[in-house]
Amino acid sequence: MKVLLVDDEKELIATLAERLSFRGFEVDFATTAEAAIQMADNKTYDLAVLDIKMPKIRGFDIKKMLETKQPKMKFLFMTGHGSEKDFQTAAAQTGEEFYLVKPVQLDMLIRKMEQAMKKQGDS
Fold it and tell me: DSSP readout, 44-100?
């Protein structure tokens, strides 16, 4: 699975990318929306894992931009801000259902990635 991780916390995202690579995933990461969009211009991804609260451009907005470039890409969101209820409110408004609350455990991340690929693949 080709995965694009997008989060402004460089140490977190670099560590997740490295750990996912050890598990056999092909992973790239970006710390800005602009970098993520540029990566999607040059490579096809199966799944993007997006931080909801990014500087300048929110994760939900990054998703919209990535979808225009790669309509088959699936999405998973992470948040370290607010509560699960806050996410559910935002998710209901945007139709998102796959998310994790930070700090993210690797096994849970992989499980959610697999669920997102399977569920979103049905639609």
Answer: --SEEEEESS-SSS-HHHHHHHHHHH-TT-EEEEEESSS-HHHHHHHHHHHT---EE
The enclosing domain of 114 has a CATH number of: 3.40.50.2300
Task: Report, as an integer, the average pLDDT of 36-41.
Answer: 97
Counting the structural domains of the chain, the total is 1
Contacts of 17 (CB under 8 A, 6+ apart): 5, 27, 28, 29
Question: What digits encode the pLDDT tens for the residues 50-73?
Answer: 998 888 898 889 999 999 999 999
- Burial (CB count within 10 angstroms: exposed 0-12, middle 13-18, buried 19+), residue 13: buried
Cα radius of gyration rounded to whole Å, the chain: 13
Instruction: For residue 76, give its domain range.
Output: 2-122
Q: Are 90 and 60 in contact (CB under 8 A)?
A: yes
87 forms beta bridges with none
Q: How many residues are listed for the chain in this entry?
A: 123
